[in-house]
């Protein structure tokens, strides 16, 4: 119903605009001004083009400089240096072209405004000019695309064997974090196993899952490779860590991954920004529902020694909730009980 009313409203507005135009035309005929090609508004419009160019140009440069620190966040990963450099090279190339074309776009209406004594030049074609404006953009764009492809191939290549694995699972409306145990191998999962006490859907019949453990935040070591294994439980989400220059979609039924090397601890970034409350974060950049705004998880980057100490202190899923071991085979139960005894020592 609303769509129909909006459509009727649009038709009425167009009809009114058309009627105003027709009335203006009839008035011009009555006054005899319809034969006059150029009017005072011709020059006024030409001057307005220049004023608009200057006004918006000054506003653009002022805003870009004033807010630079807000959109150019400090880099905290190795690949972030490469992606930022590609971004600014692309910005420089496209920015120069943008400025030149738009300056000409607004100057030409002023310079070539209608005059009775001016005759237009007939200029049908120029093969040399057409070759130049086709070849130059093709070469420049090919260079940008190839350099971006090389960087992306490095970023999405298989992670180093000793990379620290972290699983990030998105669901409406939060992130769940899972770490593998000492074997650095995550156990299997199955969406059919998801319950109130097993929100990850971990399959504890898989021995690799027995030493997996959850965490309320993402803790990773500085200077060592980290592999994020990303998945979604319900709808499309997107893992975004701006300071790490990391973004990867979390897609239901299609696990994704992203590996990187952090270069600054949380404490170092706090000192750099002079902000004792700073926290790295993961946010969701895919509109996933009403609670989308609440999908945030803290990332804490620490020194490798502090990371190993924190890692050794974590308790597995089963150690935190022994009921998860119910219904498992005797062999798997024995392994789980060994873990429980070790945790109680």
Automatic annotation (TrEMBL):
Bilayer disposition of the protein: Multi-pass membrane protein
Alphabetical list of PROSITE patterns matching this protein: COX2_CUA, COX2_TM
Domain Cytochrome oxidase subunit II transmembrane region profile: 59-159
Catalytic activity: 4 Fe(II)-[cytochrome c] + O2 + 8 H(+)(in) = 4 Fe(III)-[cytochrome c] + 2 H2O + 4 H(+)(out)
Keywords, ordered alphabetically: Copper, Electron transport, Membrane, Metal-binding, Respiratory chain, Translocase, Transmembrane, Transmembrane helix, Transport
Domain Cytochrome oxidase subunit II copper A binding: residue ranges: 161-313
Major place of residence: membrane
Enzyme class: translocase
EC number: 7.1.1.9
Subcellular location per the Swiss-Prot or TrEMBL entry: Cell membrane; Membrane
Cofactor note: Binds a copper A center.
TM stretches of this protein: 6-23, 44-65, 85-110, 131-152
Domain of life: Bacteria
Named cofactor requirement(s): Cu cation
Its job: Subunits I and II form the functional core of the enzyme complex. Electrons originating in cytochrome c are transferred via heme a and Cu(A) to the binuclear center formed by heme a3 and Cu(B).
Family that this chain belongs to: Belongs to the cytochrome c oxidase subunit 2 family.
Annotated protein name in UniProt: Cytochrome c oxidase subunit 2
Organism: Algoriphagus aestuariicola
């Amino acid at each position: 119903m609303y769509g129909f009313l909006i459509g009727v409203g649009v038709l009425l507005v167009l009809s009114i605009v058309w009627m105003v135009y027709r009335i203006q035309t009839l008035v011009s005929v009555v006054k005899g001004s319809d034969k006059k090609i150029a009017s005072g508004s011709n020059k006024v419009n030409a001057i307005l083009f220049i004023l608009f160019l200057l006004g918006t140009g000054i506003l653009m440069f002022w805003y870009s400089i004033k807010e630079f620190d807000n959109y150019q966040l400090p880099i905290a990963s190795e690949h972030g240096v490469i992606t930022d450099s590609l971004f600014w090279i692309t910005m420089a190339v496209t920015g120069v072209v943008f400025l030149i074309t738009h300056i000409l776009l607004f100057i030409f209406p002023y310079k070539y405004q209608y005059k009775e004594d001016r005759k237009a030049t007939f200029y049908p074609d120029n093969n040399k000019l057409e070759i130049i404006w086709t070849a130059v953009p093709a070469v420049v764009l090919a260079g940008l695309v190839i350099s971006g492809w090389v960087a992306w191939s490095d970023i999405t290549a298989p992670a180093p064997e000793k990379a620290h694995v972290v699983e990030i699972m998105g669901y409406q409306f939060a992130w769940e974090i899972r770490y593998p145990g000492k074997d650095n191998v995550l156990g299997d999962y199955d969406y059919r196993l998801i319950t109130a006490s097993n929100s990850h859907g971990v399959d504890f019949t898989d021995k690799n899952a027995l030493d997996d453990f959850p965490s309320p935040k993402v803790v990773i070591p500085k200077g060592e490779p980290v592999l994020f294994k990303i998945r979604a439980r319900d709808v499309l989400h997107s893992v975004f860590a701006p300071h790490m220059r990391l973004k990867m979609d979390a897609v239901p039924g299609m696990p994704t991954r992203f590996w990187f090397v952090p270069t600054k601890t949380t404490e170092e970034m706090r000192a750099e920004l002079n902000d004792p409350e700073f926290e790295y974060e993961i946010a969701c950049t895919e509109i996933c529902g009403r609670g989308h705004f609440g999908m945030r998880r803290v990332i804490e980057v620490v020194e490798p020694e502090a990371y190993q100490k924190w890692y050794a202190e974590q308790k597995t899923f089963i150690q935190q909730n022994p009921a998860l071991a119910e219904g498992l085979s005797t062999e798997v139960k024995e392994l789980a009980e060994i873990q429980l005894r070790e945790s109680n020592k």
